[in-house]
Amino acid sequence: MARTTIEVLGNLNLLGWDVLMYGWVAAGVLNRFATTCLNSDLNEQQLRAVAKLTSAEKLSALEIDHLLTQLGPKPLSRNSTAADCWRLAKLVELHSQDLDWDEKVTQLESLAAEFGFPEDMRGCSRYSVGTADRLDEMESVIAKLRNQLGPG
Hints:
The chain has 152 residues and is an all-alpha fold. The protein contains eight helices and no strands. It folds into two domains: 67 residues, no CATH class; 69 residues, no CATH class.
């Protein structure tokens, strides 16, 4: 059964404010995550921000960005750890999907483009030089990122 990117991030213990701030999150997801964090050890400013985020659907993108800034550092670039967390989760999500080889590789190529064609994903394109299967290359990238980001 295919899992959503957010579920994968949660299962890998990679879901945090900095990762959420990086992007790709619907307000409803942010709302649910904030609700689960209300019992966390937060200072007064963080608690106010989390409480507001429990109603994220009612906030503007600018308000959400401001509140997330109060809760965690903003990732500086697409080469950041938060980007790698998202990339790993999206690769795991794609890996779990029941697609034929061509469709999966097409989505894998789109994913590589979305992240600015990371060096470690060079072998994931059907146009790359090499004999390795592109989906085997994807599994290698998943294993590398899991190792890099720690247990999950």
